[in-house]
Amino acid sequence: MDIDSIVKNLMMAERMPLDRMKQDKQILEWQRDDYRAMNALMLDFRNKLSDMRFTTNYRARTVSTSDDTRVTATASSAAAQGSYSITKVDKLASAETWVTTTSINSDNSTPVDGSKSIKSQENLFANSLTWQTGAVGSQTITANGTDPVKLNLHTNETIVNSELSKMSVQVNGKSYKVVAAGNLEGAANQVTISANGELSFSSDVQISSGASVKVDYVTNQKVQEGTLKEGAATYSLSKKNLAEDGFTVSLDGGAGVSISNVTGNIGTLDGIGEINLDTGVITFNDGVVSADMSIRVNYKQEYTSFSAGAYNSTSGASPVTENFLIESSQSLNQVFSRVNSSKAGISMLLDETTGQLSVMKKETGDYNTSGNDIQLEGDLAGLLNLDSSTVTQGSDAEFTINGLATTRKSNTFTMSGVTFTLKQTFDETETPAGLTVNNDGNQVFDNIKEFVENYNTLIGGISLKTSEERYRSFQPLTDEQRGEMSEKQQEQWDEKAKSGLIRRDPILTGALSSMRNDFYSPVTNSDTDPMMRQLASIGITTTSNYIEGGKLEINEAKLKAAINNNPEAIEAMFIGGNNNTNDSEKGIIHRLHDTATETMDRLRTKAGNEFSTLQNYSLGKSIVNVDERIQRFEDRLIQVEDRYWAQFTAMEKAVSQANSQGMYLMSQLGMGGQ
């Protein structure tokens, strides 16, 4: 017997209920996907509703000016409609500037090059600079909120206490004053740094977990360690323009070798090689370096310091200043770039042709009536002749608007929701600059039109799914059926099998009904106009084609007229009554938002979302139930198939035995006959 074929055919019949269960599961999954697609549509619409709850959508303003060469303006939604007249502008706001009166060059025939290191051009400066020796470092540490903030220093590196006032500490971009430990006050936004690099803040400062702490500091020396490859010819230090004093190199933990003599910029390291003090590159003698040899270098560099800042709109009684540690290997361009990009509030520029320096405050206005706004201190300030500068102090803008004489720190300022920009001075003998703030009806119209289009998109999507034809004869394909079809045939079949799975769904049809009611029920809050309480009164109505499921259409002329004639009533109809619990007093947008939220909650209960487990929503529980039935049935099929095999195997064995016995009897009968 062909037992394989017999069992296979029998099992095909046995598996028919299993195929139906798998089809049931597929239908549940398709339904879930359809519900989630509708929920996504609803979420997108609700997000747009959230945007439409802002008054800016109904209070768009436009400003016209009689002379935009003298004054321009823009208006926020908070600006009231009205007119402004600026009769004179006595003075424009200006920023304080410093221009050095003498050149930084000792000889203008060979000017200082801003792109080259300061150290390499010392002989070109008119003034001299005394460099400090030590090591400049910068680290950014992420605080954990529990342990003290501590710099990662080598055991032999120590913070120089005498240089604390030149160091810089910033927490999430905010600067803190670095003071000696004995000067740390309780509530002054101060910080001190111990010899081993641990930071201690004043008691009013709380450093939260994840805070970024940036520290620019000075240590007594720099210790650099590494591992050399066999035959390495050179080793580069991280700093340049090194000092001869305190320089030592040790290999494989041996005694440190100092510089024995210096010729030009090259120092001799007896038994090891030489060091280029300008570049910080050590060159080894042949045969010195073996495989995996350790190297440790103690050295110092030359540096100076500089403090820059200014009084401005955020400074209060003290200027906003920042400290800068300047390495001798840095160029003036690098220094100026650091200052200009910092929060010091100033911009520095070198004219290499004349050797003069310009320093300008970034903010206009006069903030320090008792002196200069710009504050510059430090050794580098002397090198750059900043103490010999012509100072043009900043000034406030002075003008008269609607008969009111007033001042502002900036030429751009805001009054009553209108942002004005003064462009030039003029007096009262000239024609005043007039500005008029009007409602921007076109912008409001566009906002409402876009909202209606979004609503129609939602209605179209839901109506399409809830009215789809259901083809019950087209069940999900089994694996065997798919194997007998082409891809095109499978696609066409699946399209019909998926159709109408949420036809006339009560959640979605109920949502459509509720939203239509939200639109057409009168809005009766205290701000609405009795003549403008329904959408139809402003030109928004349902289309005549009932098949579209209640889509809206706009009478553009009527809506624009309503916006221009009574914009406050339009706003009240759409977003008024936000604090009312009575739906009749709520604006249309708030009603729709509530309906959308309720619908999404019901859809999520029905079909969950991408983060839901199967047990968290009703369709998921049904899927779990079908899965359990499938598992139990598959277990039963295994038992049935095993039973079939056992039965047919036993049958085949019995037949074989019967045949053997028959042949034996036949043979015996044959022998007896002879």
Automatic annotation (TrEMBL):
It is found in: Secreted; Bacterial flagellum. Residues 479-497 have a biased composition (Basic and acidic residues). Residues 1-95 form the Flagellar hook-associated protein 2 N-terminal domain. Residues 475-497 are annotated as: Disordered. The keyword Chloroplast does not apply. Keywords: Bacterial flagellum, Cell projection, Cilium, Coiled coil, Flagellum, Secreted. InterPro entries: FliD (IPR040026), FliD_C (IPR010809), FliD_N (IPR003481). It comes from the Bacteria. Its main location: secreted. Required for morphogenesis and for the elongation of the flagellar filament by facilitating polymerization of the flagellin monomers at the tip of growing filament. Forms a capping structure, which prevents flagellin subunits (transported through the central channel of the flagellum) from leaking out without polymerization at the distal end. PANTHER family: FLAGELLAR CAP/ASSEMBLY PROTEIN FLID (PTHR30288), FLAGELLAR HOOK-ASSOCIATED PROTEIN 2 (PTHR30288:SF0). Belongs to the FliD family. Homopentamer. This is Flagellar hook-associated protein 2. It comes from Jeotgalibacillus haloalkalitolerans.
